[in-house]
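pasting for the record
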Amino acid sequence: MQGQNLDDSRLYSLVDASQQLGGLSIWSLRKHVFRGNVRPTRLGRRVFLSSAEIARIQREGLPSLSDTNGQRAEEPTVSTAQRKNRARVATEDARDPQR
């Protein structure tokens, strides 16, 4: 299906787009949309890919999803314990400015 000519004005649901992309998992495709690797067209809550975007993905490919350990690349990983500790330290500093 990769060699198939796509109508430039057509929008494909994620299910149809995943089939056009050789059987890519719909959940993987959703993760790529969330991370900004894929530029979707949204109509209300529904998510579509244009034929031009599908052609771009076929031409350029997509980055590995395992590179960022489930996080967006620009966001540092901070645990809940680290957040609580930072809040505790900030509260203590506010109470005792000589620390």
